[in-house]
Design goal:
The complex is a heterodimer of chains A (about 300) and B (about 230).
Chain A lengths: L2 E6 L5 E3 L19 H11 L7 E5 L4 E4 L3 E7 L5 E2 L2 E2 L5 E4 L5 E2 L8 E6 L33 E3 L13 H9 L4 E5 L8 H9 L2 E7 L3 E6 L13 E2 L4 E3 L7 E3 L6 E2 L3 E5 L4 H5 L6 E2 L1 E3 L2 H15 L1
Parallel strand pairs in A: 12-21
Antiparallel strand pairs in A: 1-4, 1-11, 2-3, 3-10, 4-9, 5-8, 5-10, 6-7, 6-9, 12-19, 13-14, 13-20, 14-17, 15-18, 16-17, 16-19
Chain B lengths: L8 E7 L2 E6 L5 H16 L5 E6 L3 E6 L6 H13 L11 E8 L7 H7 L4 H10 L2 E6 L6 E4 L14 E4 L3 E5 L2 E4 L4 E3 L2 E5 L20 E7 L1 H9 L1
Chain lengths: ~300, ~230
Protein backbone atom coordinates (compact mmCIF):
# COMPACT_ATOMS: atom_id res chain seq x y z
CA UNK A 1 0.00 0.00 0.00
CA UNK A 2 1.34 3.42 -0.86
CA UNK A 3 1.52 6.22 1.67
CA UNK A 4 1.84 9.97 2.02
CA UNK A 5 4.37 11.36 4.49
CA UNK A 6 3.98 14.78 6.10
CA UNK A 7 7.39 16.53 6.01
CA UNK A 8 5.87 19.69 7.42
CA UNK A 9 2.18 20.19 8.18
CA UNK A 10 1.83 23.92 7.46
CA UNK A 11 -0.39 26.04 9.70
CA UNK A 12 -3.40 23.73 9.99
CA UNK A 13 -3.79 20.71 7.75
CA UNK A 14 -6.52 18.12 8.27
CA UNK A 15 -7.99 15.12 6.47
CA UNK A 16 -11.40 16.05 5.07
CA UNK A 17 -14.14 14.52 2.97
CA UNK A 18 -17.75 15.70 2.57
CA UNK A 19 -18.55 15.18 6.26
CA UNK A 20 -20.87 13.04 8.37
CA UNK A 21 -24.56 13.84 8.21
CA UNK A 22 -27.11 12.14 10.43
CA UNK A 23 -25.68 12.63 13.92
CA UNK A 24 -27.30 15.95 14.84
CA UNK A 25 -29.42 14.25 17.51
CA UNK A 26 -26.27 13.34 19.49
CA UNK A 27 -24.74 16.78 19.03
CA UNK A 28 -22.28 15.94 16.24
CA UNK A 29 -22.11 18.48 13.41
CA UNK A 30 -21.25 17.25 9.93
CA UNK A 31 -17.75 18.75 9.59
CA UNK A 32 -16.27 18.06 6.12
CA UNK A 33 -14.22 20.27 3.81
CA UNK A 34 -14.73 23.98 4.42
CA UNK A 35 -14.73 24.44 0.63
CA UNK A 36 -16.48 21.29 -0.53
CA UNK A 37 -16.62 22.51 -4.12
CA UNK A 38 -12.82 22.57 -4.36
CA UNK A 39 -12.48 19.12 -2.78
CA UNK A 40 -15.12 17.69 -5.13
CA UNK A 41 -13.42 19.18 -8.18
CA UNK A 42 -10.02 17.85 -7.08
CA UNK A 43 -11.51 14.37 -6.78
CA UNK A 44 -13.31 14.60 -10.11
CA UNK A 45 -10.11 15.63 -11.86
CA UNK A 46 -8.48 12.45 -10.56
CA UNK A 47 -11.36 10.09 -11.27
CA UNK A 48 -12.05 9.64 -7.55
CA UNK A 49 -15.54 9.56 -6.11
CA UNK A 50 -16.45 13.14 -5.10
CA UNK A 51 -16.52 12.27 -1.40
CA UNK A 52 -12.99 10.82 -1.34
CA UNK A 53 -10.84 12.16 1.50
CA UNK A 54 -8.04 14.63 0.77
CA UNK A 55 -6.00 17.16 2.73
CA UNK A 56 -7.30 20.62 3.61
CA UNK A 57 -4.58 23.22 4.21
CA UNK A 58 -5.16 26.56 5.87
CA UNK A 59 -3.38 29.86 4.99
CA UNK A 60 0.06 28.23 4.90
CA UNK A 61 0.55 24.85 3.24
CA UNK A 62 2.86 21.97 4.11
CA UNK A 63 5.33 19.68 2.36
CA UNK A 64 4.63 16.08 1.44
CA UNK A 65 6.29 13.00 -0.06
CA UNK A 66 4.87 9.76 -1.39
CA UNK A 67 6.04 6.16 -1.14
CA UNK A 68 5.52 5.58 -4.82
CA UNK A 69 4.25 7.15 -8.03
CA UNK A 70 1.04 9.00 -7.16
CA UNK A 71 -1.37 11.11 -9.21
CA UNK A 72 -2.44 14.25 -7.42
CA UNK A 73 -4.55 17.38 -8.00
CA UNK A 74 -4.44 20.70 -6.19
CA UNK A 75 -7.57 22.85 -5.89
CA UNK A 76 -8.95 25.70 -3.83
CA UNK A 77 -6.82 28.77 -3.22
CA UNK A 78 -3.37 29.20 -4.76
CA UNK A 79 -0.74 28.25 -2.17
CA UNK A 80 2.14 28.47 -4.69
CA UNK A 81 2.64 24.72 -4.96
CA UNK A 82 5.97 23.43 -6.27
CA UNK A 83 7.21 19.94 -7.08
CA UNK A 84 10.93 19.72 -6.30
CA UNK A 85 11.08 23.48 -6.66
CA UNK A 86 9.21 23.61 -9.99
CA UNK A 87 5.90 25.49 -9.86
CA UNK A 88 2.85 23.30 -10.51
CA UNK A 89 -0.53 24.61 -11.59
CA UNK A 90 -3.65 24.25 -9.50
CA UNK A 91 -6.61 22.56 -11.20
CA UNK A 92 -4.40 20.21 -13.18
CA UNK A 93 -3.51 16.57 -12.55
CA UNK A 94 0.11 15.58 -12.29
CA UNK A 95 2.27 12.70 -11.16
CA UNK A 96 4.56 12.73 -8.12
CA UNK A 97 7.33 10.14 -8.06
CA UNK A 98 9.07 8.47 -5.15
CA UNK A 99 11.48 10.88 -3.47
CA UNK A 100 9.93 14.04 -4.94
CA UNK A 101 8.69 16.72 -2.55
CA UNK A 102 5.42 18.56 -3.09
CA UNK A 103 5.72 21.84 -1.25
CA UNK A 104 3.09 24.51 -0.56
CA UNK A 105 3.67 28.05 0.64
CA UNK A 106 1.53 30.87 2.01
CA UNK A 107 -1.77 31.58 0.31
CA UNK A 108 -1.94 33.98 -2.60
CA UNK A 109 -5.74 34.10 -2.61
CA UNK A 110 -8.18 32.57 -0.09
CA UNK A 111 -7.98 30.64 3.17
CA UNK A 112 -7.82 27.02 2.01
CA UNK A 113 -6.16 24.74 -0.53
CA UNK A 114 -6.82 21.05 -1.13
CA UNK A 115 -4.43 18.26 -2.00
CA UNK A 116 -6.29 15.35 -3.52
CA UNK A 117 -4.64 12.03 -4.37
CA UNK A 118 -5.87 9.32 -6.71
CA UNK A 119 -7.27 6.58 -4.46
CA UNK A 120 -7.80 9.02 -1.60
CA UNK A 121 -6.54 9.16 1.98
CA UNK A 122 -7.59 5.76 3.27
CA UNK A 123 -7.92 6.20 7.05
CA UNK A 124 -10.70 4.34 8.88
CA UNK A 125 -14.08 6.09 8.95
CA UNK A 126 -15.54 7.44 12.20
CA UNK A 127 -19.36 7.70 12.23
CA UNK A 128 -19.38 7.16 8.49
CA UNK A 129 -16.76 9.72 7.48
CA UNK A 130 -13.01 10.34 7.39
CA UNK A 131 -13.50 14.03 8.04
CA UNK A 132 -11.58 15.50 10.97
CA UNK A 133 -13.77 17.27 13.56
CA UNK A 134 -11.14 19.21 15.50
CA UNK A 135 -13.40 20.51 18.26
CA UNK A 136 -14.46 17.04 19.36
CA UNK A 137 -11.29 15.21 18.38
CA UNK A 138 -13.17 12.98 15.96
CA UNK A 139 -12.29 11.44 12.59
CA UNK A 140 -9.29 12.04 10.33
CA UNK A 141 -6.02 10.99 11.96
CA UNK A 142 -6.79 10.63 15.69
CA UNK A 143 -9.20 13.57 15.42
CA UNK A 144 -6.36 16.07 15.13
CA UNK A 145 -4.46 18.29 12.71
CA UNK A 146 -1.54 16.63 10.91
CA UNK A 147 1.97 16.81 12.35
CA UNK A 148 5.45 16.40 10.99
CA UNK A 149 6.20 12.72 10.44
CA UNK A 150 2.59 11.54 10.10
CA UNK A 151 2.19 8.81 7.50
CA UNK A 152 -1.20 8.44 5.82
CA UNK A 153 -2.33 5.40 3.82
CA UNK A 154 -3.44 6.01 0.23
CA UNK A 155 -6.34 3.94 -1.08
CA UNK A 156 -6.28 1.45 -3.88
CA UNK A 157 -6.92 3.34 -7.12
CA UNK A 158 -7.86 0.35 -9.28
CA UNK A 159 -11.54 1.20 -8.77
CA UNK A 160 -11.14 4.88 -9.62
CA UNK A 161 -12.87 6.06 -12.75
CA UNK A 162 -11.35 7.84 -15.67
CA UNK A 163 -10.00 11.24 -14.80
CA UNK A 164 -12.10 14.15 -16.02
CA UNK A 165 -10.57 17.18 -17.66
CA UNK A 166 -13.32 19.76 -17.53
CA UNK A 167 -10.98 21.78 -15.41
CA UNK A 168 -11.39 25.21 -17.01
CA UNK A 169 -15.12 25.44 -16.30
CA UNK A 170 -14.69 24.00 -12.83
CA UNK A 171 -11.84 26.35 -12.09
CA UNK A 172 -14.09 29.28 -13.04
CA UNK A 173 -16.83 27.91 -10.78
CA UNK A 174 -14.45 27.56 -7.89
CA UNK A 175 -12.75 30.93 -8.07
CA UNK A 176 -15.80 33.08 -8.78
CA UNK A 177 -16.35 34.76 -5.43
CA UNK A 178 -18.57 37.76 -4.86
CA UNK A 179 -21.10 38.98 -2.32
CA UNK A 180 -22.28 36.18 -0.06
CA UNK A 181 -25.91 35.45 -0.78
CA UNK A 182 -28.25 34.70 2.10
CA UNK A 183 -31.86 33.74 2.71
CA UNK A 184 -33.88 35.07 5.64
CA UNK A 185 -33.01 33.31 8.90
CA UNK A 186 -35.66 31.86 11.23
CA UNK A 187 -35.66 35.04 13.37
CA UNK A 188 -35.43 37.57 10.50
CA UNK A 189 -38.82 39.03 11.45
CA UNK A 190 -37.77 39.39 15.11
CA UNK A 191 -35.00 41.85 14.23
CA UNK A 192 -35.86 45.55 14.01
CA UNK A 193 -35.99 46.66 10.36
CA UNK A 194 -33.01 48.96 11.03
CA UNK A 195 -30.88 45.90 11.84
CA UNK A 196 -31.90 44.12 8.64
CA UNK A 197 -31.07 47.20 6.55
CA UNK A 198 -27.69 47.72 8.23
CA UNK A 199 -26.81 44.06 7.77
CA UNK A 200 -27.38 44.22 4.01
CA UNK A 201 -25.97 47.71 3.54
CA UNK A 202 -22.62 47.66 5.25
CA UNK A 203 -19.34 45.93 4.53
CA UNK A 204 -18.13 43.45 7.13
CA UNK A 205 -14.56 42.56 8.02
CA UNK A 206 -13.60 38.98 8.93
CA UNK A 207 -11.98 38.99 12.39
CA UNK A 208 -9.05 36.83 13.54
CA UNK A 209 -11.65 34.49 15.06
CA UNK A 210 -12.39 32.68 11.83
CA UNK A 211 -12.11 28.91 11.85
CA UNK A 212 -13.98 25.76 10.94
CA UNK A 213 -16.49 26.31 13.77
CA UNK A 214 -17.49 29.79 12.81
CA UNK A 215 -16.49 33.16 11.41
CA UNK A 216 -16.85 36.25 13.54
CA UNK A 217 -17.45 39.47 11.63
CA UNK A 218 -17.15 43.14 12.51
CA UNK A 219 -19.35 45.72 10.82
CA UNK A 220 -17.44 48.65 9.30
CA UNK A 221 -20.17 51.10 10.33
CA UNK A 222 -22.75 49.69 12.70
CA UNK A 223 -23.54 47.09 15.30
CA UNK A 224 -26.89 45.40 14.80
CA UNK A 225 -29.83 45.83 17.14
CA UNK A 226 -30.56 42.66 19.08
CA UNK A 227 -33.58 40.44 18.56
CA UNK A 228 -33.64 39.37 22.19
CA UNK A 229 -33.47 35.91 23.73
CA UNK A 230 -34.40 32.66 22.08
CA UNK A 231 -35.15 29.17 23.35
CA UNK A 232 -32.19 27.04 22.22
CA UNK A 233 -32.94 25.43 18.84
CA UNK A 234 -31.17 23.54 16.06
CA UNK A 235 -28.93 25.64 13.84
CA UNK A 236 -28.22 25.01 10.19
CA UNK A 237 -24.90 25.23 8.37
CA UNK A 238 -24.20 28.83 7.38
CA UNK A 239 -26.60 30.32 9.94
CA UNK A 240 -25.77 33.95 10.69
CA UNK A 241 -26.45 34.47 14.37
CA UNK A 242 -26.36 37.81 16.13
CA UNK A 243 -25.24 37.73 19.79
CA UNK A 244 -25.86 40.72 22.10
CA UNK A 245 -22.66 42.40 20.82
CA UNK A 246 -24.49 43.07 17.54
CA UNK A 247 -21.62 41.58 15.51
CA UNK A 248 -22.70 38.56 13.47
CA UNK A 249 -21.15 35.08 13.47
CA UNK A 250 -21.44 32.68 10.52
CA UNK A 251 -21.73 29.12 11.87
CA UNK A 252 -19.60 26.80 9.83
CA UNK A 253 -18.75 23.13 9.21
CA UNK A 254 -17.75 22.29 12.80
CA UNK A 255 -20.62 24.34 14.15
CA UNK A 256 -22.42 23.70 17.39
CA UNK A 257 -25.59 21.78 16.49
CA UNK A 258 -27.92 23.94 18.60
CA UNK A 259 -27.76 27.52 19.80
CA UNK A 260 -29.67 30.25 21.56
CA UNK A 261 -28.73 33.38 19.62
CA UNK A 262 -31.28 34.69 17.10
CA UNK A 263 -30.42 33.97 13.47
CA UNK A 264 -30.89 36.87 11.09
CA UNK A 265 -29.96 35.12 7.86
CA UNK A 266 -28.47 31.95 6.40
CA UNK A 267 -25.81 31.64 3.73
CA UNK A 268 -27.15 29.78 0.67
CA UNK A 269 -25.61 26.41 -0.15
CA UNK A 270 -23.83 27.51 -3.33
CA UNK A 271 -21.96 30.17 -1.35
CA UNK A 272 -20.64 27.86 1.42
CA UNK A 273 -17.37 27.45 -0.56
CA UNK A 274 -16.97 31.24 -0.57
CA UNK A 275 -17.31 31.27 3.21
CA UNK A 276 -14.73 28.46 3.41
CA UNK A 277 -12.23 30.68 1.64
CA UNK A 278 -12.65 33.74 3.90
CA UNK A 279 -9.49 34.91 5.64
CA UNK A 280 -9.08 37.24 8.59
CA UNK A 281 -9.33 40.89 7.40
CA UNK A 282 -11.22 39.95 4.21
CA UNK A 283 -14.19 42.17 3.38
CA UNK A 284 -17.64 40.65 3.06
CA UNK A 285 -20.99 41.91 1.86
CA UNK A 286 -24.31 40.10 2.03
CA UNK A 287 -27.09 39.96 -0.54
CA UNK A 288 -30.59 38.73 0.26
CA UNK A 289 -32.16 36.22 -2.12
CA UNK A 290 -35.35 34.14 -1.98
CA UNK A 291 -35.35 30.43 -1.14
CA UNK A 292 -36.52 29.81 -4.73
CA UNK A 293 -33.53 31.72 -6.15
CA UNK A 294 -31.19 29.83 -3.79
CA UNK A 295 -32.61 26.56 -5.04
CA UNK A 296 -32.30 27.63 -8.69
CA UNK A 297 -28.64 28.55 -8.16
CA UNK A 298 -28.00 25.27 -6.35
CA UNK A 299 -29.48 23.15 -9.15
CA UNK A 300 -27.56 25.18 -11.72
CA UNK A 301 -24.28 24.64 -9.82
CA UNK A 302 -24.84 20.90 -9.52
CA UNK A 303 -25.59 20.66 -13.25
CA UNK A 304 -22.36 22.50 -14.06
CA UNK A 305 -20.46 19.97 -11.96
CA UNK A 306 -21.87 16.94 -13.75
CA UNK B 1 -56.14 15.86 1.23
CA UNK B 2 -54.58 17.99 3.92
CA UNK B 3 -53.59 16.39 7.21
CA UNK B 4 -54.62 18.05 10.40
CA UNK B 5 -51.53 19.25 12.23
CA UNK B 6 -51.45 19.62 16.00
CA UNK B 7 -52.52 23.18 16.78
CA UNK B 8 -49.16 24.40 18.08
CA UNK B 9 -47.07 22.90 15.25
CA UNK B 10 -45.72 24.91 12.35
CA UNK B 11 -43.02 24.81 9.71
CA UNK B 12 -40.49 27.52 9.11
CA UNK B 13 -37.65 27.63 6.55
CA UNK B 14 -34.25 27.81 8.27
CA UNK B 15 -32.05 27.80 5.16
CA UNK B 16 -32.26 26.71 1.53
CA UNK B 17 -31.56 23.16 2.71
CA UNK B 18 -33.36 22.97 6.03
CA UNK B 19 -36.54 23.78 7.89
CA UNK B 20 -37.62 24.00 11.50
CA UNK B 21 -40.59 22.11 12.84
CA UNK B 22 -41.75 24.25 15.76
CA UNK B 23 -43.76 22.71 18.61
CA UNK B 24 -44.92 25.91 20.31
CA UNK B 25 -42.68 28.28 22.23
CA UNK B 26 -42.59 26.79 25.71
CA UNK B 27 -40.17 24.41 27.38
CA UNK B 28 -42.25 21.62 28.90
CA UNK B 29 -42.22 17.86 29.33
CA UNK B 30 -45.33 17.61 27.14
CA UNK B 31 -43.53 19.34 24.27
CA UNK B 32 -40.48 17.19 24.91
CA UNK B 33 -42.59 14.02 24.62
CA UNK B 34 -44.07 15.27 21.34
CA UNK B 35 -40.57 15.76 19.97
CA UNK B 36 -39.41 12.31 21.12
CA UNK B 37 -42.57 10.81 19.58
CA UNK B 38 -41.87 12.62 16.30
CA UNK B 39 -38.30 11.26 16.25
CA UNK B 40 -39.55 7.71 16.99
CA UNK B 41 -41.99 7.87 14.08
CA UNK B 42 -39.30 9.19 11.74
CA UNK B 43 -36.91 6.48 12.87
CA UNK B 44 -39.47 3.71 12.35
CA UNK B 45 -40.33 4.84 8.82
CA UNK B 46 -37.72 7.28 7.54
CA UNK B 47 -39.21 9.58 4.91
CA UNK B 48 -37.25 10.16 1.71
CA UNK B 49 -34.83 13.06 1.49
CA UNK B 50 -34.14 13.68 5.19
CA UNK B 51 -30.40 14.10 5.77
CA UNK B 52 -30.10 15.19 9.40
CA UNK B 53 -32.20 16.08 12.45
CA UNK B 54 -31.32 18.49 15.26
CA UNK B 55 -33.96 18.21 18.01
CA UNK B 56 -34.09 20.83 20.77
CA UNK B 57 -36.53 22.03 23.49
CA UNK B 58 -39.49 22.88 21.25
CA UNK B 59 -38.27 22.36 17.73
CA UNK B 60 -36.58 19.95 15.36
CA UNK B 61 -34.32 21.26 12.63
CA UNK B 62 -34.69 19.06 9.55
CA UNK B 63 -31.91 19.14 6.97
CA UNK B 64 -32.93 17.67 3.64
CA UNK B 65 -31.63 16.81 0.18
CA UNK B 66 -32.34 20.11 -1.55
CA UNK B 67 -31.22 18.75 -4.90
CA UNK B 68 -34.25 16.49 -5.10
CA UNK B 69 -36.81 17.99 -2.72
CA UNK B 70 -38.35 21.41 -2.06
CA UNK B 71 -39.38 22.76 1.34
CA UNK B 72 -43.03 22.22 0.43
CA UNK B 73 -42.43 18.57 -0.51
CA UNK B 74 -40.60 17.86 2.75
CA UNK B 75 -43.33 19.60 4.76
CA UNK B 76 -45.98 17.51 3.00
CA UNK B 77 -44.08 14.31 3.78
CA UNK B 78 -43.67 15.28 7.47
CA UNK B 79 -47.32 16.24 8.05
CA UNK B 80 -48.62 12.66 8.40
CA UNK B 81 -45.99 12.00 11.06
CA UNK B 82 -47.01 15.07 13.02
CA UNK B 83 -50.66 14.04 12.81
CA UNK B 84 -49.81 10.70 14.47
CA UNK B 85 -47.87 11.92 17.52
CA UNK B 86 -50.59 10.92 19.99
CA UNK B 87 -50.47 7.30 18.77
CA UNK B 88 -46.89 6.82 19.91
CA UNK B 89 -46.42 4.84 23.10
CA UNK B 90 -43.13 6.03 24.50
CA UNK B 91 -41.08 3.36 26.29
CA UNK B 92 -40.14 3.87 29.93
CA UNK B 93 -37.01 6.03 29.74
CA UNK B 94 -33.63 4.66 30.79
CA UNK B 95 -32.16 5.83 34.09
CA UNK B 96 -28.55 6.94 33.71
CA UNK B 97 -26.50 7.47 36.88
CA UNK B 98 -23.49 9.77 36.92
CA UNK B 99 -20.94 9.42 39.76
CA UNK B 100 -19.75 12.94 40.61
CA UNK B 101 -17.02 14.30 42.83
CA UNK B 102 -18.42 17.68 43.90
CA UNK B 103 -16.41 20.78 44.80
CA UNK B 104 -12.69 21.23 45.35
CA UNK B 105 -10.50 21.22 42.25
CA UNK B 106 -13.20 19.28 40.37
CA UNK B 107 -15.95 21.83 41.01
CA UNK B 108 -14.28 25.25 41.27
CA UNK B 109 -17.58 27.17 41.23
CA UNK B 110 -19.39 25.15 43.91
CA UNK B 111 -18.62 27.63 46.72
CA UNK B 112 -19.77 30.59 44.64
CA UNK B 113 -23.00 28.84 43.58
CA UNK B 114 -23.66 28.09 47.26
CA UNK B 115 -23.01 31.69 48.33
CA UNK B 116 -25.20 33.13 45.54
CA UNK B 117 -28.13 31.14 46.96
CA UNK B 118 -27.23 31.53 50.64
CA UNK B 119 -26.78 27.77 50.95
CA UNK B 120 -23.92 25.62 52.20
CA UNK B 121 -21.91 23.64 49.65
CA UNK B 122 -23.28 20.43 51.19
CA UNK B 123 -26.82 21.72 50.66
CA UNK B 124 -26.11 22.43 46.98
CA UNK B 125 -24.71 18.91 46.55
CA UNK B 126 -27.70 17.38 48.34
CA UNK B 127 -30.18 19.30 46.18
CA UNK B 128 -28.32 18.64 42.92
CA UNK B 129 -27.98 14.91 43.60
CA UNK B 130 -31.53 14.39 44.87
CA UNK B 131 -33.33 15.44 41.68
CA UNK B 132 -34.09 13.24 38.68
CA UNK B 133 -33.37 15.07 35.43
CA UNK B 134 -34.63 14.65 31.89
CA UNK B 135 -32.30 14.81 28.88
CA UNK B 136 -34.40 17.20 26.79
CA UNK B 137 -32.01 16.90 23.85
CA UNK B 138 -28.34 16.65 22.93
CA UNK B 139 -26.64 19.57 21.30
CA UNK B 140 -23.91 22.20 21.42
CA UNK B 141 -21.07 19.64 21.16
CA UNK B 142 -21.03 15.83 20.69
CA UNK B 143 -22.66 14.01 23.61
CA UNK B 144 -23.74 17.13 25.56
CA UNK B 145 -27.22 16.61 27.06
CA UNK B 146 -29.38 19.55 28.15
CA UNK B 147 -30.74 18.27 31.47
CA UNK B 148 -33.96 19.83 32.75
CA UNK B 149 -35.43 19.43 36.23
CA UNK B 150 -32.90 21.42 38.26
CA UNK B 151 -34.29 22.31 41.70
CA UNK B 152 -35.32 25.99 41.32
CA UNK B 153 -33.14 26.93 44.35
CA UNK B 154 -30.07 26.08 42.26
CA UNK B 155 -30.85 28.07 39.11
CA UNK B 156 -27.74 30.22 38.59
CA UNK B 157 -26.89 32.67 35.81
CA UNK B 158 -24.04 31.74 33.46
CA UNK B 159 -20.59 33.26 34.00
CA UNK B 160 -20.14 36.80 32.68
CA UNK B 161 -17.04 35.71 30.78
CA UNK B 162 -17.09 32.09 29.58
CA UNK B 163 -14.02 29.94 30.33
CA UNK B 164 -11.78 29.32 27.34
CA UNK B 165 -11.47 25.67 28.36
CA UNK B 166 -13.80 23.64 30.56
CA UNK B 167 -12.25 20.23 31.44
CA UNK B 168 -13.96 17.11 30.07
CA UNK B 169 -16.35 15.53 32.58
CA UNK B 170 -17.20 18.81 34.33
CA UNK B 171 -20.69 18.87 35.84
CA UNK B 172 -22.18 22.32 35.55
CA UNK B 173 -25.19 24.55 36.10
CA UNK B 174 -26.30 27.11 33.50
CA UNK B 175 -29.53 29.00 34.24
CA UNK B 176 -32.15 26.41 35.19
CA UNK B 177 -30.34 23.58 33.41
CA UNK B 178 -27.55 21.25 34.36
CA UNK B 179 -25.21 19.24 32.17
CA UNK B 180 -21.89 17.44 31.80
CA UNK B 181 -19.20 18.59 29.37
CA UNK B 182 -18.18 15.47 27.36
CA UNK B 183 -14.97 17.00 25.98
CA UNK B 184 -12.81 19.99 26.83
CA UNK B 185 -14.55 22.98 25.22
CA UNK B 186 -15.11 26.64 25.95
CA UNK B 187 -18.11 27.10 28.24
CA UNK B 188 -19.97 29.58 30.40
CA UNK B 189 -21.77 27.30 32.86
CA UNK B 190 -20.79 27.10 36.56
CA UNK B 191 -18.67 24.05 37.36
CA UNK B 192 -19.74 22.25 40.54
CA UNK B 193 -18.16 18.81 40.11
CA UNK B 194 -16.62 16.27 37.80
CA UNK B 195 -17.28 12.74 36.57
CA UNK B 196 -14.89 10.21 35.09
CA UNK B 197 -17.56 8.73 32.83
CA UNK B 198 -16.72 8.97 29.17
CA UNK B 199 -19.83 10.58 27.70
CA UNK B 200 -18.80 10.54 24.08
CA UNK B 201 -16.87 7.73 22.45
CA UNK B 202 -17.26 7.24 18.71
CA UNK B 203 -15.80 3.71 19.07
CA UNK B 204 -18.71 2.60 21.28
CA UNK B 205 -21.98 1.29 19.86
CA UNK B 206 -24.04 4.46 20.28
CA UNK B 207 -21.17 6.94 20.56
CA UNK B 208 -23.07 8.96 23.14
CA UNK B 209 -23.70 7.93 26.77
CA UNK B 210 -26.90 9.97 26.81
CA UNK B 211 -29.79 9.91 24.40
CA UNK B 212 -32.76 12.21 24.15
CA UNK B 213 -35.38 11.38 26.79
CA UNK B 214 -33.03 9.70 29.30
CA UNK B 215 -33.71 10.13 33.02
CA UNK B 216 -30.52 11.15 34.81
CA UNK B 217 -29.35 11.18 38.44
CA UNK B 218 -26.08 12.36 39.94
CA UNK B 219 -24.48 10.20 42.64
CA UNK B 220 -21.93 11.94 44.91
CA UNK B 221 -18.55 10.22 45.35
CA UNK B 222 -15.66 11.31 47.57
CA UNK B 223 -12.40 12.81 46.31
CA UNK B 224 -10.69 9.54 47.39
CA UNK B 225 -13.12 7.42 45.38
CA UNK B 226 -12.63 9.74 42.42
CA UNK B 227 -8.83 9.53 42.69
CA UNK B 228 -8.95 5.75 43.03
CA UNK B 229 -11.19 5.40 39.97
CA UNK B 230 -9.02 7.84 38.02
CA UNK B 231 -5.88 5.79 38.70
CA UNK B 232 -7.45 2.53 37.48
Amino acid sequence: MSTLTVLSPGLLTTVQDLGREGYGAIGVSASGAADMLSLRIGNKLLGNLEGTAGLEMTLLGGAFQFSGETWVAITGSDFGAALDGQAVLPYTVFKVSLGQTLQFGPTKSGARAYLCVRGGIDLPKTLGSRSTHLLSGLGGLDGRALRKGDILPIGDDSRCGTASYNSTTWHDLAIKRGAIRVTKGPQWENFPSAARIKFLEQTYIVTEEANRMGIRLTGTRYELESAGELITEGVSLGAIQVPPSGQPIILFVEQQTTGGYPKLANVIAVDFPTVGQLRPRDEVRFELVSIEMARFLYLERERALM
Amino acid sequence: MKNLLPANTRFQPASDQSLLVQFGQEISLDTHREIVSFLKLLEAQPPKGIVNLHPAYCSVLVKFDALNFTHAEIEASLEPYLARLQEVKLPVPRLREIPVCYGGEHGPDLAEVASIHGLSAEEVVRLHSSATYTAYFLGFVPGFAYLGGLPPELATPRLQAPRKVVPAGSVAIGGNQTGVYPTATPGGWRLIGKTLLKLFDPASAHSSFFEIGDQVRFVPITAEEFARAASQ
